[in-house]
Amino acid sequence: MLISCNGQNKSNDQALDQSVSKIEVMDFHSTHRCMTCNAIEANTKFTLDTYFSDELKADKISFQVINVDDEKNEKLAEKFEASGTALILNVIKNGSENKIDLTEFAFMNGTDQNGFSKALKSKIETQLKTL
C-alpha cells in the first residue's frame, strides 16, 4: 500500500543540528540496475575508500546506497527528487543543507573508474574546504 505524504515531509523534517558539518554522498538507484548504475556505485565507493577513509571514519563523510523502489526510502527519495539513479552530495554546514546533483557527471563518467574517481575526488575536496 502506498501512502501519499501530501507535502507533509517538509514540516515533519527535524531541524538539523547546527553544529554538524559533513558531506553525505548518496547513491540512489532503482531495483533493476544497468551496468553504468552498478559502476557508479562501485566507483564512488572506490573513491571514498581510497581518498577519504579518514573522513569516513571520522563521520565527516558518509556514504549511503538507497533503493528508491523500497517503500522505507520514499521520503528520502522525494526530498532529493530521485526517482531512479542519482548521485548526490548533500553538504551540511552549520545546520544548512546544500544539495549538489552529480547525476549527469556520474552517467557520463560512470564506466571510467580513473576519470570518475579523479573528478569525484576533486568535487569532494572542494566541498570539504567549505566546511
Question: Gist?
Answer:
The chain is α+β, with helices and mostly antiparallel strands.
Question: How would you describe what is shown here?
Answer:
By secondary structure, this protein is of the alpha+beta class. The chain contains 6 helices and 4 strands.
Order of helices and strands, N to C? Answer: HEHHEHEEHH
Q: Major sheet: size, sense and barrel closure?
A: 4 strands, mixed
Query: Helical percent range?
Result: 40-55%
Q: Unreliable stretches, pLDDT < 50, 5 or more residues?
A: 1-14
Strand content: 15-25%
Q: Give the C-alpha Rg.
A: 15 Å
Shape: globular
Overall strand count: 4
**What strand order characterises the main sheet?**
2-1-3-4
Overall SS class:
alpha+beta
Overall pLDDT, averaged? 88
Number of helices: 6
Distance between the termini: 41 Å
